[in-house]
Amino acid sequence: MKTVCLYFQVHQPWRLKVYRFFNIGKDHNYLDDFTNRAIMQKVARQCYLPMNALLLKLIKENKGAFKCSFSITGSAVEQFRAYAPEVLDSFRALAETGCVEFLAETYSHSLASLSSKEDFVEQVKLHTKMIKEEFGKKPVAFRNTELIYSDHIGEMVSELGFKTILAEGARHVMGWKSPNYIYTNSIDNRLRVLLRNYKLSDDIAFRFSNQGWDQYPLTAEKFAQWLAEENGDVMNLFMDYETFGEHQKATTGIFDFMKALPKAILKHNDVCFATVSEAAKSSQPVGVLHCPHVMSWADEERDVTAWLGNELQNEAFSKLYALKDKVKSLKNADFEYVWNFMQTSDHFYYMATKWLSDGDVHSYFNPYGSSYEAFINYMNVLSDFEIEVEKALAAKKSRKKDTASA
Amino acid sequence: MRVLMFGWEFPPHIAGGLGTACYGMTRGLARNDVEVIFVMPRASGDEDERFVKVVNASDVEARYCDSTIEGADDIMRKISFIHIDSNMVPYISPEEFATYREGYERTGRKFWEKEGDSWTQRYTFSGKYGANLMEEVARYAVVAAEVARQLEGQFDVIHAHDWLTYFAGIAAKRVSGKPLVVHMHATSFDRSSSDNIDTRVYEIERAGMAAADRVIAVSNLTRNIVIEKYNIPAEKVVTVHNAVRFAEKENELPERGVKDKIITFLGRITFQKGPDYFVEAAAKVLKRVPNVRFVMAGSGDMMNHVIRRVARLGIADRFHFTGFLKGDDVHKMFQLSDVYIMPSVSEPFGISPLEAMRANVPSIISKQSGVAEVLDYAVKVDYWDVDAMADAIYGFVKYPALSKMFSEKGLEEVTGLKWNNAAAKIKTVYEDAINECAK
Fold this sequence. Notes:
The complex is a heterodimer of chains A (about 400) and B (about 450). Chain A has helices spanning about 35-60, 75-85, 85-95, 115-135, 150-160, 170-175, 200-205, 220-230, 255-265, 275-280, 305-310, 310-320, 325-330, 335-345, 345-350, 360-365, 370-405, and strands at about 1-10, 70, 100, 140, 165-170, 185, 190-195, 235-240, 245, 250, 270-275, 285-290. In chain A, the strands form three sheets. In chain A, strands 1, 2, 3, 8 and 11 form a five-stranded parallel β-sheet that branches. With about 400 residues, chain A is of the alpha/beta class. In chain A, β4, α5 (about 150-160) and β5 (about 165-170) form a beta-alpha-beta unit. The longest helix of chain A is centred in the C-terminal third of the chain and has 35 residues, at about 370-405. Chain B is α/β, with parallel strands linked by helices and about 450 residues long. In chain B, α1 links the parallel β1 and β2 (about 35-40). In chain B, α1 crosses α15 (about 420-439), α4 runs parallel beside α5 (about 165-175) and α5 (about 165-175) packs parallel to α7 (about 200-210). Chain B is elongated, with a radius of gyration of 22 Å. Mean pLDDT of chain B is about 80; it is low at about 45-75 and about 105-130. The chains are: A alpha/beta (about 400), B alpha/beta (about 450). Chains A and B meet through α12 and α17 of A and α10, β11 and α11 of B.
């Protein structure tokens, strides 16, 4: 029996407004409220709401045979609450079917796993708590931001009590091995690793509407046939949820494709659907996956250079995490809130200067004219935040002194 | 005395310092009883209009003597303007002009078709633009000759600013027989490193100065370059330092957002302005004093390079970029600053430190700038000496007495630099040229 594991990533960053040098010290609203709301409501209309409705219908129609998994970031949930609460309701409706698993990840879709264990653990715990509150179930499987994975990250995840982690089936790590089997982390063998089948995943996520592709048009029957012909135990189809209706617009027929897909797949008797945790338990691991260096699902290189590949990104990253202890010692929710959205990986993605094969993808997501603009804007906001943190710390100290002397 | 002046920009439409200087200069001349007919290119766009437009002085006044900016001003009545339909643009190299022209071509307007050599061919005023910057400069000269002919008897001397108008000056001189004064606001050697100058521009500059009866240089630095590198006889070259004109009304101080001391660089971020040295000095200062912030205001072809360098030095949380600043923001930036720095590698004059000092901001300037010749209360350092630069910044930040002295004395000093005086000098230059010509 072969298992198809569908997992969708849901994320929206809090976008910063144009924040100039002259704002520093005076203006502490960092977010572009208009853009954030406009984008959230547009994506909700084009993707989240219609796709959630479709999935709910598919689950009911197939009486439990169709399953899928989600990972929803904290910043996306915060924006649902603020701008599109109906989306959150529709996700809860999916959760109640019992056929949908919600995964754990970093709260802010952050790069904390590359900073320190402390930062990472905090981000994961925050997210786990949020998912439990929103959807009523504590997640047991983990996916890191942009599928960033290494042996070390796997070890930290296992220590946090997770049984399964997702990773990219990157060619340079896999070599001759197939992503269609279950592997274990090389440091902690209890942690199971599910690897994304990038060929099949990208057939839907990237190539679906590409008329220059020799397999165009992709039909559910054809895709189901490919799955049936694939060797292995699990076929992991991991993609951005925004693929449906946003990256691939409704006019491409992506919703019709999804509507027909479960039936087409289930027609093949030896193929079934499973959530991430079920898929990880469906077969025995075939071996250990060695991944000493970090990899991700981004770009041709499948590494982390999209976020930490140049001096601008490194500088912003190190200056951000240098503030951590100060922010923590404040124990103030307002500061935590800013601290969280400043960590979002998207800010670093906007500063990337690699524009070769993946330039299109980068510029699609980038609200800034150039990496340099993105960097300047981010650093201006960070400078103001730092000043505010220092002020709050000084105030706290003097309060302490007052109470001590009184 | 009446002067026919060729410039290429005038407020409010300015791209750089020349327009500001022309404005102050013409006002100063008017106060010294010199009447000015100001001729400048302007791309108007409709070829059907007459080629040379003599703009009614009163029309122009409504534009330039906007009461909200200047207040009613008798001085301006002595200045007339003539706009010549041309797409000549300042601060642009022939190569850049070619790109600019392509963009212009897309608008569907016609160009002046090249009919052989620009200089030997006789042109009729077709109302089409030249095919490249050099040709446009030549065409402008042809038009200038026509202007000079039409205004015959209405001026005593011709004054041409910067190389774009030198051919026009020469042509006007030939037609009218009046003496020519050319004004060197910058040389080819300031625009690029000395072994990589644009020889065509150099030739035009040299030709203009050779044909002129007098050459005005904006500083001794520029005068020396003119004498040494263009082989112009020293007795023909006169230094007249620029002055500075300040708006009468004082804006109220903007509210400061940060407590830290702010060290500012304001200008185009190009090789000529020495932005790199500022960054290195900033890194040195930040090692010693944490409570300072550095601001680089402006844009330019070296901006991305500078941002990367700042990131690599790990000082991006203390080093800010504002991008290109306009009008009020420039003023605001000066008022927010505690120290102003101009580390120019080569600066014929450099008016910005005067503006900073006017805003009570002590300044550090490079010895390689013309303005260093007229200022005592500014710290002068070699542009490459980042240690000295860092020292000076440290001094101003750490010793309030020092920065108080420089800002008070500096304000006194710049207030004394008046266009009236500079214009009086220019008037003497005119008189010398006229007398010599009459001999």
